[in-house]
């Protein structure tokens, strides 16, 4: 996006939809012992569902709140 939220939402792969989507965001970070880690992405709709889980990390809830605040303007 070009509305000042670069990096928060971008085209990518949704792990839940199992498809390329125009609006993906990070929902998990995979750490590896000695190699590079990875990023799990989901579309905004699925990211919202994941953020609603009691086990969701606070940073994901914060990202969704930031996205919603930017969408309201």
Summed up, what is this model?
This protein is an alpha+beta fold. Helices cover 30% and strands 32% of the residues.
Walkthrough of the structure:
The model is unreliable at 1-6 (pLDDT under 50). The protein has one domain (9-71). It has 73 residues and is of the alpha+beta class. It starts with 9 loop residues before the first strand and ends with a helix. The chain has a 3-stranded antiparallel sheet with strand order 1-2-3. The protein contains 2 helices and 3 strands, in the order βββαα.
Task: Describe how the helices and strands are arranged.
Blueprint: E1 10-14, E2 19-30, E3 38-43, H1 44-51, H2 58-71
Antiparallel strand pairs: 1-2, 2-3
Q: Give the strand line-up of the largest sheet.
A: 1-2-3
**What's the rounded overall pLDDT mean?**
86
Question: How many β-strands, per DSSP?
Answer: 3
Fraction in beta strands? 25-35%
N/C terminus separation: 14 Å
Spans of at least 5 consecutive residues with low confidence: 1-6
Largest sheet data: 3 strands, antiparallel
Question: What's the total helix number?
Answer: 2
Helical fraction:
25-40%
How many domains, in number, for the residues?
1
Task: State the oligomer.
Answer: single chain
List SSEs in N-to-C order: EEEHH
Q: Which class of secondary structure composition applies to the elements?
A: alpha+beta
Principal-axes geometry comes out as globular
Question: Nearest-angstrom radius of gyration?
Answer: 13 Å
